[in-house]
Fold:
Amino acid sequence: MVPASQSAERRSILALLSGHGLDGLTLLVVPALLLVLGLFIYPFAYGLWLSLTPKAGGILANYATFFSDPFLYETIAKTLWLSLPVTLLNLVMAVPIALRVRLMRRQRLLTTILVIPITLGTVLVAEGMITYFGPQGWFNRVLLWLHLTSGPVKLTYNYWGVFLSLLITGFPFTFLLTLSYLSGVEAALEQAAATLGAGSWQRFRHVLFPLILPGLAITFCLSFVQAFSVFPSAVLLGAPAGPTRVISIAAYQAAFEQFDYSLASAIAIIMAVIQLGIVVAVLAARTLIYRGPAGGGKG
Amino acid sequence: MIRDTTWGAKLWPAAVWAVIGFFVVNLLALIATVIVSSFGRRWLGTWLPAEWTTRWYVSAWNEFQLADILVVTFQVVGLVVLISGLIGVPAAYALARRNFPGKKLVMILFLLPLLVPPITFGIPLATVLYRAELAGSLSGVVLANLVPTVPFVILVMIPFIEQIDERIEQAARVFGASTLQLFVHVLLPLLLPGILAALLLVLVRTIAMFELTFLTAGPTSQTLVVSLYYAVFASGVRAVQSIDAMAVIYMVTSLIWLLIALRFVNPTQIVARAKQTPRA
Structure:
């Protein structure tokens, strides 16, 4: 039996903890937390440690190998050369289209069609593109039929194949994110600007754009990170030995073809650092350009 | 609505609609290409195949052992949906109802697996799972797939739970409901639409999850999308139409669930996690 004073002490500790929001109910977070710690944080930590214990050489030997072998370090430039233009193009297309679609009353059909490529995923899009954009595919047939080109345009098994696949799966993603940010902007703000005589460009430039800029910065980051980690379409639709040998291919080959998990971990860490670097740069630039309330509400 | 009457203001929408139209037409034609090709006996150098057949479905079914692959796919997806619901919903409930020190850090921890792309964390994760001798089996694939889906369920469910008035639960307590009764008779009916939406989205995402399954699956634990990748990767070995037939089967499996999911959620929710509460 527990002595009375001890159980009272126990109760007071529990009361103190529940005062801070820690009680039996809070413990429901624990399984989910353990899962993320065990299968996300721990592998990254383990990967970092593994990358610093190479098969041969000092602790930084893997990183030295990566940055001295052009076959490896050039993958960074190749991946950026694909992902940055595609992300910018997606964003530049998404903003005016979202501005227009926002005014539509029946958006559902369009958003449903656009969500299809995201649902199907890059593997299926790549599979379909091989035939559709191929020399005998409908796209080239229409171009020839309209006499827009003299011969079939090569759009598969090269840079443009991967570029197009990133456009097809990336644009809907960017667009739907932009649309959700735009529909959060209070319509009365734009109407007020129109009442004061602002034209459509002025309304966009001085009212809407500053309001959605924080959202656009986040959209850019999310779309870029997705495009930077392109993998299946770069293999299936690109030239995986040449211009579309992206960094994820290098990491995959190190791990599952050369079984050098140490080097593969180093490449994965380099990938994560570049993604993080660009995200931090964009978010830092955002605070330099615009300071003030980010929401578009009545406040 | 604001009306502009200048010429530019009239041409601009036309240009925007032309771009949307071009995108949508190409997207639908791309999907149609796969379907048409899977039903064509031979398709070379013409607008449409000369003869139609369904035999590619029979050959794809046998060549790729699609029966086995579909069983594995549904096992993986079913387990992932079930486990992420069982772990994610209670965690979301705790995070919606309690404020505790370090809650912000916990939220960031749950956000990270959704922001970092699967291929980036998939390689260290697969390494760990191979060391633990879990990769290559069904359990390894399920574990890897849980990493993004549990946080996804949590982040979808938190705003949903927050909007349920806590006084309803307190009222049930006042009338003497036990925790189990409270959960079964009060919370579950209220949360069901949210749980259903979150789990359907998990289902759609897991069917299409290529990277994590690809990195952790062995020969007997491949899902449909990974088998499709290998089939396209080794194209030339099999007839194109056979691969297309498999792609159609994959499309049907994932789009059926998308259609069901869209009865409960807005398409924008598939990309944007938190539901935007419309301002009055």
Q: What stands out?
A: Confidence is low (pLDDT under 50) at residues 294-299 of chain A. The longest helix of chain A spans residues 70-101.
